[in-house]
Amino acid sequence: MGEFRKDALTGNWVVVGVKKLKRQETGVCPFCPGSEHLTPPSIREMRDGQGNWLVRSFPAANPIFQIEASENKRAEGFYDKMGTLGAHEIIVEERSHTKTFATFEAAEISRVIDMYTERILDLKKDKRFKYVQIYKNHGEITGSLIFHPHSHVLATPILPHQLYLELLNSQNHYLQKERCLLCDVVSQEIRQERRVVTASRHFLVVCPFASRMAFEVWIIPRRHNPSFESWMDEDVRREFVEVYIDTMRRIERVRSSYSIVVHTSPNMAACQSGERAPQVSDYFHWHVEILPRTYSQYKREDEFYTVPEMPEEGAAILKIDKTEGGNR
Fold this sequence. Notes:
Elements: E1 3-6, E2 13-16, E3 44-47, E4 53-59, E5 74-76, E6 79-83, E7 87-92, H1 106-123, E8 131-138, E9 150-156, H2 161-177, H3 181-192, E10 196-199, E11 203-206, E12 217-221, H4 234-254, E13 258-263, H5 280-283, E14 287-292, E15 306-307, H6 311-319
Helix pairs in contact: 1-4
Protein backbone atom coordinates (compact mmCIF):
# COMPACT_ATOMS: atom_id res chain seq x y z
CA MET A 1 0.00 0.00 0.00
CA GLY A 2 1.50 3.31 -1.07
CA GLU A 3 0.58 6.83 -0.04
CA PHE A 4 -0.01 10.32 -1.40
CA ARG A 5 2.69 12.87 -0.54
CA LYS A 6 2.40 16.60 -1.23
CA ASP A 7 5.32 18.39 -2.85
CA ALA A 8 5.75 21.39 -0.54
CA LEU A 9 7.36 23.45 -3.34
CA THR A 10 4.82 22.96 -6.15
CA GLY A 11 1.71 21.81 -4.26
CA ASN A 12 1.54 18.72 -6.49
CA TRP A 13 0.56 15.35 -5.04
CA VAL A 14 2.72 12.32 -5.83
CA VAL A 15 1.95 8.63 -5.25
CA VAL A 16 4.90 6.80 -3.71
CA GLY A 17 5.45 3.20 -2.67
CA VAL A 18 2.97 1.57 -5.09
CA LYS A 19 4.61 -1.61 -6.35
CA LYS A 20 3.42 -2.63 -9.79
CA LEU A 21 2.71 -6.31 -10.19
CA LYS A 22 4.40 -7.88 -13.19
CA ARG A 23 1.80 -8.98 -15.69
CA GLN A 24 2.10 -12.62 -16.65
CA GLU A 25 2.75 -13.03 -20.34
CA THR A 26 0.29 -15.71 -21.44
CA GLY A 27 0.04 -14.71 -25.09
CA VAL A 28 -3.68 -14.11 -24.54
CA CYS A 29 -5.22 -10.65 -24.41
CA PRO A 30 -7.04 -10.34 -21.06
CA PHE A 31 -9.56 -7.91 -22.59
CA CYS A 32 -10.70 -10.13 -25.47
CA PRO A 33 -13.96 -12.13 -25.32
CA GLY A 34 -13.32 -15.50 -23.67
CA SER A 35 -10.62 -14.06 -21.35
CA GLU A 36 -12.97 -12.51 -18.82
CA HIS A 37 -11.53 -14.83 -16.14
CA LEU A 38 -8.22 -12.97 -16.49
CA THR A 39 -9.76 -9.73 -15.20
CA PRO A 40 -11.70 -8.84 -12.03
CA PRO A 41 -15.48 -9.29 -12.25
CA SER A 42 -17.36 -6.59 -14.16
CA ILE A 43 -18.88 -3.58 -12.42
CA ARG A 44 -21.06 -2.82 -15.45
CA GLU A 45 -21.59 -4.41 -18.86
CA MET A 46 -23.56 -3.36 -21.92
CA ARG A 47 -24.79 -6.40 -23.85
CA ASP A 48 -26.32 -7.20 -27.22
CA GLY A 49 -29.52 -9.18 -27.83
CA GLN A 50 -27.64 -12.48 -27.57
CA GLY A 51 -26.17 -11.63 -24.17
CA ASN A 52 -22.65 -10.88 -25.42
CA TRP A 53 -20.96 -7.94 -23.73
CA LEU A 54 -20.19 -4.99 -25.98
CA VAL A 55 -18.55 -2.65 -23.45
CA ARG A 56 -17.49 -3.62 -19.94
CA SER A 57 -16.07 -1.89 -16.88
CA PHE A 58 -14.17 -3.58 -14.05
CA PRO A 59 -11.66 -2.68 -11.29
CA ALA A 60 -8.03 -2.46 -12.43
CA ALA A 61 -6.06 -5.59 -11.53
CA ASN A 62 -3.18 -3.48 -10.22
CA PRO A 63 -4.83 -0.23 -9.08
CA ILE A 64 -3.01 2.96 -8.14
CA PHE A 65 -5.93 4.01 -5.93
CA GLN A 66 -8.06 1.69 -3.82
CA ILE A 67 -11.64 2.24 -2.74
CA GLU A 68 -11.11 0.30 0.51
CA ALA A 69 -8.09 2.41 1.51
CA SER A 70 -8.37 5.06 4.21
CA GLU A 71 -7.88 8.75 3.44
CA ASN A 72 -5.92 9.05 6.71
CA LYS A 73 -4.69 12.63 6.31
CA ARG A 74 -1.64 13.20 8.49
CA ALA A 75 1.58 15.14 8.84
CA GLU A 76 5.25 14.24 8.97
CA GLY A 77 6.75 17.37 10.45
CA PHE A 78 5.40 20.10 8.18
CA TYR A 79 4.96 17.66 5.23
CA ASP A 80 1.47 16.42 4.29
CA LYS A 81 0.56 12.88 3.29
CA MET A 82 -2.51 10.68 3.04
CA GLY A 83 -3.64 7.20 2.02
CA THR A 84 -4.29 6.23 -1.60
CA LEU A 85 -8.07 6.31 -1.24
CA GLY A 86 -9.80 6.31 -4.62
CA ALA A 87 -10.94 4.06 -7.42
CA HIS A 88 -9.19 2.78 -10.54
CA GLU A 89 -11.31 1.09 -13.19
CA ILE A 90 -10.77 -0.17 -16.72
CA ILE A 91 -13.33 0.27 -19.50
CA VAL A 92 -12.95 -2.19 -22.38
CA GLU A 93 -14.54 -0.28 -25.22
CA GLU A 94 -15.06 -2.94 -27.87
CA ARG A 95 -14.96 -6.72 -28.35
CA SER A 96 -12.58 -6.47 -31.32
CA HIS A 97 -8.89 -6.48 -30.38
CA THR A 98 -7.68 -4.42 -33.34
CA LYS A 99 -10.22 -1.60 -33.73
CA THR A 100 -9.27 1.99 -32.99
CA PHE A 101 -11.54 4.98 -32.46
CA ALA A 102 -11.04 6.02 -36.08
CA THR A 103 -12.70 2.76 -37.19
CA PHE A 104 -15.54 2.73 -34.63
CA GLU A 105 -19.10 3.07 -35.86
CA ALA A 106 -21.30 5.80 -34.37
CA ALA A 107 -23.26 3.26 -32.28
CA GLU A 108 -20.01 1.86 -30.86
CA ILE A 109 -18.67 5.26 -29.82
CA SER A 110 -22.08 6.11 -28.39
CA ARG A 111 -21.91 3.05 -26.12
CA VAL A 112 -18.45 4.10 -24.93
CA ILE A 113 -19.76 7.59 -24.13
CA ASP A 114 -22.65 5.97 -22.23
CA MET A 115 -20.18 3.97 -20.15
CA TYR A 116 -17.98 7.02 -19.49
CA THR A 117 -21.06 8.95 -18.35
CA GLU A 118 -22.36 6.15 -16.13
CA ARG A 119 -19.05 5.60 -14.38
CA ILE A 120 -18.49 9.33 -13.75
CA LEU A 121 -22.01 9.76 -12.34
CA ASP A 122 -21.72 6.64 -10.18
CA LEU A 123 -18.33 7.53 -8.72
CA LYS A 124 -19.36 11.14 -8.08
CA LYS A 125 -22.00 9.80 -5.68
CA ASP A 126 -19.11 9.12 -3.29
CA LYS A 127 -18.47 12.47 -1.59
CA ARG A 128 -14.95 11.38 -0.68
CA PHE A 129 -13.93 11.75 -4.32
CA LYS A 130 -13.22 15.29 -5.52
CA TYR A 131 -12.52 14.30 -9.11
CA VAL A 132 -13.29 11.52 -11.58
CA GLN A 133 -10.94 11.37 -14.53
CA ILE A 134 -11.31 9.44 -17.79
CA TYR A 135 -8.25 8.95 -19.95
CA LYS A 136 -7.10 6.71 -22.76
CA ASN A 137 -3.56 5.89 -23.90
CA HIS A 138 -3.24 4.31 -27.33
CA GLY A 139 0.03 2.97 -28.73
CA GLU A 140 3.30 1.78 -27.24
CA ILE A 141 4.76 5.31 -27.05
CA THR A 142 2.09 6.24 -24.51
CA GLY A 143 3.10 3.35 -22.26
CA SER A 144 0.00 1.29 -22.99
CA LEU A 145 0.84 -2.41 -22.56
CA ILE A 146 -2.36 -3.78 -24.10
CA PHE A 147 -3.44 -2.85 -27.63
CA HIS A 148 -7.09 -3.85 -27.14
CA PRO A 149 -9.17 -0.60 -27.05
CA HIS A 150 -9.64 0.46 -23.43
CA SER A 151 -9.71 3.50 -21.14
CA HIS A 152 -8.95 4.19 -17.48
CA VAL A 153 -11.21 5.76 -14.87
CA LEU A 154 -9.61 7.32 -11.79
CA ALA A 155 -11.51 8.73 -8.82
CA THR A 156 -9.41 10.60 -6.26
CA PRO A 157 -9.89 12.66 -3.08
CA ILE A 158 -7.63 15.38 -4.56
CA LEU A 159 -7.57 17.30 -7.84
CA PRO A 160 -4.96 16.43 -10.49
CA HIS A 161 -2.53 19.36 -10.69
CA GLN A 162 -3.43 20.26 -14.29
CA LEU A 163 -7.14 20.34 -13.46
CA TYR A 164 -6.40 22.48 -10.40
CA LEU A 165 -4.57 25.00 -12.60
CA GLU A 166 -7.44 25.02 -15.12
CA LEU A 167 -9.93 25.71 -12.33
CA LEU A 168 -7.74 28.44 -10.84
CA ASN A 169 -7.19 30.26 -14.15
CA SER A 170 -10.84 29.86 -15.15
CA GLN A 171 -11.99 31.26 -11.82
CA ASN A 172 -9.58 34.23 -12.02
CA HIS A 173 -10.80 35.00 -15.55
CA TYR A 174 -14.42 34.86 -14.37
CA LEU A 175 -13.71 37.15 -11.39
CA GLN A 176 -12.11 39.72 -13.69
CA LYS A 177 -14.55 39.58 -16.61
CA GLU A 178 -17.61 37.64 -15.44
CA ARG A 179 -17.21 35.35 -18.44
CA CYS A 180 -16.14 31.74 -18.88
CA LEU A 181 -12.54 31.44 -20.07
CA LEU A 182 -13.17 28.65 -22.58
CA CYS A 183 -16.25 30.44 -23.91
CA ASP A 184 -13.90 33.34 -24.71
CA VAL A 185 -11.41 30.93 -26.29
CA VAL A 186 -14.17 29.53 -28.51
CA SER A 187 -15.27 33.02 -29.57
CA GLN A 188 -11.74 34.13 -30.48
CA GLU A 189 -10.85 30.92 -32.33
CA ILE A 190 -14.03 31.21 -34.43
CA ARG A 191 -13.21 34.85 -35.23
CA GLN A 192 -9.60 34.16 -36.21
CA GLU A 193 -10.19 30.73 -37.86
CA ARG A 194 -6.43 30.11 -37.94
CA ARG A 195 -6.40 27.14 -35.55
CA VAL A 196 -9.88 25.71 -36.17
CA VAL A 197 -9.81 22.14 -37.51
CA THR A 198 -13.57 21.68 -37.83
CA ALA A 199 -16.65 23.46 -36.54
CA SER A 200 -20.18 22.15 -36.18
CA ARG A 201 -23.31 23.67 -34.76
CA HIS A 202 -22.49 22.65 -31.19
CA PHE A 203 -18.74 21.86 -31.14
CA LEU A 204 -15.41 23.38 -32.07
CA VAL A 205 -12.30 21.29 -32.79
CA VAL A 206 -9.21 23.44 -32.45
CA CYS A 207 -5.42 23.17 -32.16
CA PRO A 208 -4.88 25.18 -28.94
CA PHE A 209 -2.94 28.45 -29.13
CA ALA A 210 -0.14 27.05 -26.91
CA SER A 211 -0.15 23.44 -28.14
CA ARG A 212 2.11 21.12 -26.16
CA MET A 213 2.41 18.56 -28.96
CA ALA A 214 2.19 18.73 -32.75
CA PHE A 215 -1.41 18.15 -33.89
CA GLU A 216 -2.80 18.47 -30.37
CA VAL A 217 -6.53 19.17 -30.57
CA TRP A 218 -9.31 20.05 -28.16
CA ILE A 219 -13.00 19.29 -28.70
CA ILE A 220 -14.94 22.09 -26.97
CA PRO A 221 -18.71 22.57 -26.68
CA ARG A 222 -19.64 25.94 -28.16
CA ARG A 223 -22.31 26.39 -25.51
CA HIS A 224 -21.22 26.67 -21.88
CA ASN A 225 -21.49 23.40 -19.96
CA PRO A 226 -19.32 22.44 -16.95
CA SER A 227 -19.82 18.67 -16.99
CA PHE A 228 -19.13 16.10 -19.69
CA GLU A 229 -21.63 13.74 -18.09
CA SER A 230 -24.55 16.18 -18.13
CA TRP A 231 -25.91 15.55 -21.63
CA MET A 232 -29.01 17.68 -22.02
CA ASP A 233 -30.00 17.06 -25.63
CA GLU A 234 -29.84 13.88 -27.70
CA ASP A 235 -29.12 15.86 -30.87
CA VAL A 236 -26.07 17.46 -29.21
CA ARG A 237 -24.88 14.07 -28.07
CA ARG A 238 -25.31 12.58 -31.55
CA GLU A 239 -23.36 15.47 -33.04
CA PHE A 240 -20.55 14.96 -30.50
CA VAL A 241 -20.20 11.32 -31.58
CA GLU A 242 -19.91 12.39 -35.23
CA VAL A 243 -17.36 15.09 -34.41
CA TYR A 244 -15.37 12.70 -32.21
CA ILE A 245 -15.08 10.02 -34.91
CA ASP A 246 -14.15 12.61 -37.53
CA THR A 247 -11.47 14.07 -35.25
CA MET A 248 -9.96 10.65 -34.47
CA ARG A 249 -9.77 9.82 -38.19
CA ARG A 250 -7.82 13.03 -38.72
CA ILE A 251 -5.51 12.29 -35.77
CA GLU A 252 -4.82 8.68 -36.74
CA ARG A 253 -3.93 9.86 -40.23
CA VAL A 254 -0.88 11.70 -38.81
CA ARG A 255 -0.04 9.80 -35.58
CA SER A 256 -0.34 6.17 -34.45
CA SER A 257 -0.06 6.91 -30.71
CA TYR A 258 -2.05 9.38 -28.67
CA SER A 259 -3.56 10.16 -25.29
CA ILE A 260 -7.15 11.31 -24.79
CA VAL A 261 -8.30 13.01 -21.58
CA VAL A 262 -11.83 14.08 -20.66
CA HIS A 263 -11.74 17.32 -18.63
CA THR A 264 -15.00 17.50 -16.70
CA SER A 265 -15.97 19.51 -13.61
CA PRO A 266 -14.96 18.30 -10.14
CA ASN A 267 -17.44 16.53 -7.91
CA MET A 268 -19.63 19.43 -6.81
CA ALA A 269 -20.68 17.55 -3.65
CA ALA A 270 -17.03 17.38 -2.53
CA CYS A 271 -15.92 20.84 -3.77
CA GLN A 272 -18.50 23.32 -2.53
CA SER A 273 -17.62 27.00 -2.94
CA GLY A 274 -18.47 29.64 -0.37
CA GLU A 275 -21.77 31.46 -0.67
CA ARG A 276 -20.15 34.61 -2.11
CA ALA A 277 -17.67 32.79 -4.33
CA PRO A 278 -18.52 32.02 -7.98
CA GLN A 279 -19.64 28.44 -8.44
CA VAL A 280 -17.55 25.97 -10.46
CA SER A 281 -20.48 25.58 -12.86
CA ASP A 282 -20.20 29.30 -13.71
CA TYR A 283 -16.58 29.26 -14.87
CA PHE A 284 -15.53 25.69 -15.73
CA HIS A 285 -16.19 24.40 -19.26
CA TRP A 286 -15.76 20.71 -20.11
CA HIS A 287 -13.66 19.65 -23.08
CA VAL A 288 -11.73 16.68 -24.46
CA GLU A 289 -7.98 16.98 -25.04
CA ILE A 290 -6.27 14.71 -27.60
CA LEU A 291 -2.48 14.60 -27.46
CA PRO A 292 -0.73 12.83 -30.36
CA ARG A 293 2.57 11.31 -29.28
CA THR A 294 5.91 10.93 -31.04
CA TYR A 295 8.17 10.00 -28.14
CA SER A 296 7.80 8.35 -24.76
CA GLN A 297 9.46 10.81 -22.41
CA TYR A 298 6.41 13.04 -22.20
CA LYS A 299 4.13 12.94 -19.19
CA ARG A 300 0.64 14.38 -19.29
CA GLU A 301 0.28 17.10 -16.68
CA ASP A 302 -3.03 15.62 -15.51
CA GLU A 303 -1.37 12.34 -14.55
CA PHE A 304 -0.15 11.61 -11.06
CA TYR A 305 3.54 10.86 -10.73
CA THR A 306 3.68 7.27 -9.47
CA VAL A 307 6.94 6.10 -7.92
CA PRO A 308 7.29 2.44 -6.86
CA GLU A 309 10.09 3.10 -4.33
CA MET A 310 9.61 5.16 -1.20
CA PRO A 311 12.02 8.15 -1.02
CA GLU A 312 13.42 6.68 2.19
CA GLU A 313 14.30 3.47 0.33
CA GLY A 314 15.97 5.44 -2.44
CA ALA A 315 18.02 7.47 0.00
CA ALA A 316 19.13 4.32 1.85
CA ILE A 317 20.28 2.69 -1.40
CA LEU A 318 22.13 5.78 -2.57
CA LYS A 319 23.86 6.13 0.81
CA ILE A 320 25.52 2.75 0.49
CA ASP A 321 29.22 3.05 -0.26
CA LYS A 322 30.00 0.47 -2.93
CA THR A 323 33.77 1.00 -2.90
CA GLU A 324 35.91 -1.69 -1.31
CA GLY A 325 36.43 -1.14 2.39
CA GLY A 326 34.08 1.79 2.43
CA ASN A 327 36.70 4.24 1.12
CA ARG A 328 35.46 7.05 -1.09
